[in-house]
Amino acid sequence: MLKSIVSKQKQDKERLLSLPYIERAKEKDAQKWLSSDLIKVILGPRRAGKSVLALRLLKEQSFAYFNFDDESLPGEEKIDLDELMTELKLAYGETKYILFDEIQNLPNWELFVNRLHRAGYNLVLTGSNASLLSKELATHLTGRHIPIEILPFNFTEVLKAKQYKVTADTLSLPDEKAKFLAILNQYMTNGGYPEVVTKDVEPRGYLDVLFDAVLFKDVVKRHKVRFSEQIDNLGSYLINNVSSQYGAKKLANVLGFKSQVTLENYLGYLTEAYLIFFLKRHSTKVGTRLRSSKKTYVVDNGFVTAKFVQHSPNAGKLMENLVFIELVKKGNQPNRELFYYKTRNDREIDFVLKKGYKVVELIQVAYESTNQAVEEREVKALVEAGKELSVSGGNVPLLTVLTWNEKRTVEKDGMTIQFEPLWEWLIEETKIA
């Protein structure tokens, strides 16, 4: 059976390599590690483009390929790994490069990977489970791997897929600016999953099915969850309350969880599956961090639109979720470099960015920034937080209000607040011709 599966997957490999491809932002950095003997581990949610990126990284090499997420496999625990290696050699020759797709489906995969690594193989792995990075990798492959995280397309990758080139000239023309903002609005509503962006699929139907499939495969099935309806309700509740704060005790009561421990476990499963992110409150006091409510975000705005119970999600919530996910895509690790904040007067700051021990930027997201009351609220919160957090050398962090399409500067109490359009912030690392 393995012989036929390897043969079929070899055809799949060639087909995938022949398809049109949108270059990913992390591809060049990942390419630098290819010749290293470190194990390359590409992590991220299902259908975000991990496999295609891995294949593209290896396209100039002679390499073997095997996907452990193949439904025709007899059951991962029954795979004869020695037979698998024999069939891969027969199909691909004596190559030292091997790509293993969705490696988390193989029980005790780390033992198999370690054995091949010691034998001199250059390995690229993909996985749809965040715990590979935080637990299993750290435990079993310490110092011998390089993690590469791939999430759905960011905005610059969406522009590439739409073949839209941003130039100073086009953005100065009202019609072109409107077209550009329409692409942004579509991205904010439907998200950045490659299938949604590049193909003529109905976003809500596709993403509704994808979310449920991930919930079943990577949560219910993987963790043998007995009460699947309960975790489905939890996922739906969190999506419908995106960018809102929650406390575990209150959440358990609202959703009828008899055990808060079970709730915490389920929250962890949703995080592992790259469906939900949680953001902690920034504080120098450990007790405050532990006791404070967390905020919840979703890996892709398309899931919010697809699973929202009301007619459509609030534009402000979509914009805040988009900013959070883009901050993560830019390399800011939640709860290490990225937090939210509450001032002493209980004014909330959407995002706090840190470098080491130093707070470097405070970001507010305001879709309705032209409203005078909204402006005053956001500016007052930033000024107050800026004073409270300028504890590292007395330097006030950069204060930013991200708007839909407004750019200006406000001076308040000796501080400067930059109002910046969302689109400009999203492409600021892209050179505009």
Structural features:
single chain, 433 residues, Rossmann fold, six-stranded mixed β-sheet, five-stranded parallel β-sheet, 19 helices, 14 strands
Taken from the alpha-carbon principal axes, the silhouette is globular
Q: What's the average pLDDT?
A: 91
Content-based structural category: alpha/beta
Number of helices: 19
Report on the biggest sheet: 6 strands, mixed
Main sheet: which strands, in order across? 9-10-11-12-14-13
In the predicted model, the low-confidence regions spanning at least 5 consecutive residues are none
Helix content: 40-55%
Distance between the termini: 54 Å
Radius of gyration from the alpha-carbon trace, in angstroms: 23 Å
How many beta-strand segments? 14
Number of domains: 2
Our estimate of the beta-strand percent is 15-25%
Task: Give structural notes.
With 433 residues, this protein is α/β, with parallel strands linked by helices. It folds into 2 domains: 2-149, 3-Layer(aba) Sandwich (Rossmann fold), CATH 3.40.50.300; 176-426, no CATH class. Helices cover 47% and strands 18% of the residues. The strands form 3 sheets. Strands 9-10-11-12-14-13 form a 6-stranded mixed sheet, with helices on both faces. Strand 10 and strand 11 (358-365) form a beta hairpin. The longest helix has 21 residues, at 203-223. The protein is globular. The termini are far apart. The model has no long low-confidence stretch (mean pLDDT 91).
